[in-house]
Amino acid sequence: MIAPTNAIWGMYAKRGLREWRGTNYECRFAGISEEIGVERVATSAARTEAAGEAGHFEAAPLTADDRRALLRFMLLMRTTEERALSLYQQGKVPGSFYDGRGQEATAVGPAFALGPRDRACILHRDLGAHFVRGVTPDRVLAQMMGRAGGVTGGKDANMHFAERRLGCVQMVSMLPDMALVACGLAVAFQMRRERRAAMTWFGDGATANGQWHEAMNIAGIRRLPVVFVLENNQWAYSTPNELEFAVDPVERAPAYGFPGVKVDGNDVEAVFQAAAAACARARAGEGPTLIEAETMRMHGHGAHDDMRYVPQEMFERWQARDPIPRYEELLAGEGISVQEIRANVKEEVDRATEWALDQPMPDPSDATSGVFADADPELGDAEAPWSRWKAADA
């Protein structure tokens, strides 16, 4: 038996490591027999092919209610971030402000594929994923204003938060360190022989860091049940793709021993299908998948960044591919009331804003509570709104 050697797999593997020592579990380090390569998916027209060929699984069905939910979560992300930016400009959000405008599909689509017992490491431009897993906009807005009613009780400001009771691990700034934490979660699932998947997100800039290589390498060697979502938003702060890497990062996946899939990151159903297939592969013990979702960051790196380095024609080209109007047009053509969804989201965020503004500031005496863990953290199960999971519970 080969024992694990990389301590950076994450603290959530500790429980699994204890089980490793107490069982006869054998880790599969054998070579992968099937042909591994990069599947390219350009648009939603290819999403069935993406799900079927990349992971050898049938396309995941979406009901009309599923599609309404996908649009609702994207609108909830955008509307909440617009409201938070307004609060920031009023001086009510301390520090800087970071959002994911234009990346709503890459946040919501993958998270929608997760089951209740799957786990997620969500990043700062993926607010929609928090909503999919069950966090509500009132707590998010309170979080951004540093109020006691926030997700972490007024700590960690508007970026570094997660609701562990909903199966999410709080992010850190050093990107892509969460890829290693996700591997740690996956190690624990693998050791306990559980049919579960871990998922994490990172940007194109993160692929230049050594931690990214470490995560890809150990995931491939151990065939971990982990899904990596690479949000290629064209810029690592102000550095364009052509100055970031000589080879598209998704092309590197076969070198690590697992598939890479490239999708239109502004097509929420295309991203969802790729993620659903990748999660199915992971749960079936077939190992990791790297999904590159090509999109565009439509706001600056932070509120302090005016994006003057982005060519106007590039901005206009991606503006025309905004994921929300594209999906609204699709759903309206199928008889779904888009305006009703929009109105409900606005009403929800209005109520959430009032509640958040009424929340008190945290008690200063609690500032040091929770800095050090006094027990193993427990991750609870999350909401899983995809109809597949509701059918499984029926």
Provide a descriptive summary of the structure in words.
This protein is α/β, with parallel strands linked by helices. It has a single domain (56-302, 334-359, 378-386), classed as Rossmann fold (3-Layer(aba) Sandwich). Helix content is 41%, strand content 9%. The protein contains 14 helices and 8 strands. The protein has helices spanning 14-22, 47-55, 64-89, 104-112, 127-133, 137-144, 177-191, 210-222, 253-256, 268-283, 312-319, 323-333, 338-357, 387-393; strands at 38-40, 119-121, 198-203, 226-232, 235-236, 239-240, 260-264, 289-294. The strands form 2 sheets. The protein has a 6-stranded parallel beta sheet with strand order 1-7-8-4-3-2, sandwiched between helices. Helix 8 (210-222) links the parallel strand 3 (198-203) and strand 4. Helix 1 (14-22) packs parallel to helix 7 (177-191), helix 3 packs parallel to helix 6 (137-144) and helix 4 runs parallel beside helix 10. It is globular and about 50 Å long. The protein starts with 13 loop residues before the first helix and ends with a helix. Residues 1-56 have low confidence and may be disordered.
Short description:
It contains 14 helices and eight strands.
Main traits of this protein?
single chain; 394 residues; alpha/beta; 6-stranded parallel sheet; disordered N terminus
